[in-house]
Amino acid sequence: MDRYAVIGHPIGHSQSPRIHTLFAQATGQALTYTAIEAPLDGFAATVDAFRAAGGRGVNVTLPFKVEACAYANDVSERARIAGAANALAFDGPRCRAENFDGIGLVRDITANLGQPIAGRRVLVLGAGGAARGALQPLLAAGPERLFVANRSADKAHELVQSFHALGLGRGVLAAGGWADLPATGAFEIVINATSASLTADALPLPAGVFARDGLAYDMVYGKGLTPFLRQAREAGVGHLADGVGMLVEQAAEAFAWWRGVRPDTRPVIDQLSVPLT
Ligand code: NDP
Fold first, then answer.
1. Ligand 1 atom at minimum distance from 250 CA
2. Catalytic center at which residues (predicted)?
C-alpha cells in the first residue's frame, strides 16, 4: 500500500489522517495515511526517513511549511510565491512542493457564497503565513479590491510590497493597519487569517467593514462561533463560515495531486463541521 503522512510539531490535533482515510475509502484508493511528529530541529531527517521507508508524499503543517519549500527540488509557482509548501510528492530523487492552502480557501469561499469571488471586495485580516498563502489564489479569482490589514501594519505593507515587486496585484492589492479600516468602506468577503480566534481574542474592527449581504470567514476551525464571527453576525452579516472547508478542500487538492482522482469534499466537510453557535 502506498504510504502518506502529515508532518508537524505538535501533530496530535491533526484531522488530516481522518480526512485522507475518508477520501481513500470513498475513491477506492489503496493507501495509508498517518501523523508524524518531527522534532523541531529534525524536519529534513524525518522526511528523509519516511522517503527511505517508501513514503510517496506528505502534507506539512506548522511550523515546517517554510522549511518544506526549501527541502524540495521542484517547487511550484504557487508555493514559491507563498514562500511555503503544505504538500510534498516523492518520485525517486525528485521532491515536488505545492501549496494548496490558498486554493482550498478560494474553493470553500466560492462554495459558501454560491458565486465566484470575481468582482467582489475582499478584506484579509492578518499578514502571517496563512495570509501570504491565500493572496495569490485570491488575486487569481479576480476580486475588485483585496485589502490586507494587520495589527502590525508594517507587516501588511511588507507583504503587499513583496507581491507588487513580483508584478502581482497592482491596482487591486493594498495594505494597512486596523486604524485604516474605518476609511476603507465595506467588504463583501472578510477573511480572518489572524490566529486571534485561537486565543478567543476579538479584533478592533469597525462594523462598517462588513457588507450585510456578504461572507465572514474565519480560517480557524472547530471553535464554533469565534469572537470574529460574533462581531460579523452582530454587524448583520448573512453568511458565516469557519476554516473546516478550507482544510478539507486543500486536502482534496493534495489527494488529487498525488492520486489523480479528486474526492467529493461535501460529505467530509459535513462530518467535521461543528455548529457556529
Ligand atoms: P502566523 O503566526 O504566521 O500569523 C499570525 C497572524 O495573526 C499575524 O498577522 C498576527 O499579527 C496575527 N495575530 C495573532 N494574534 C493576534 C491578536 N490577538 N490580535 C490581532 N492579530 C493577531 O499564523 P498563520 O498565518 O500560520 O495562521 C493564522 C490562522 O490561520 C491560525 O489560526 C491557523 O489555525 C489558521 N489556518 C487555518 C488553515 C485551514 O486549513 N483552515 C490553514 C492555515 C492556517 P502580528 O503580525 O501583528 O503579530
1. 40
2. 65 (proton acceptor)
Q: How far is 56 from 235, CA to CA, in rounded Å?
A: 47
Domain ranges of the chain: 2-99+245-272, 102-242
Whether 2-99+245-272 shares its CATH topology with 102-242 is answered: yes
ipTM above 0.95, yes or no: yes
Set 20, 51, 56, 65: catalytic member: 65
> Which residues, at least 6 apart from 132, have a Cβ–Cβ distance to it below 8 Å?
82, 83, 84, 159
| Ligand 1 contacts CB of residue 194 (under 6 A) | yes
- Fold (CATH) for 2-99+245-272: Rossmann fold (3.40.50)
Mutate to test the pocket of ligand 1, among 15, 103, 192, 194 (most ligand atoms within 8 A of CB): 194
Q: Is 65 one of the annotated active-site residues of the chain?
A: yes
Amino acid identity of residue 88, one-letter, is L
Q: Does domain 102-242 have CATH number 3.40.50.720?
A: yes
Nearest CA-CA partner of 150 in 176, 129, 172, 170: 176
In terms of pTM, does the model score above 0.90? Answer: yes
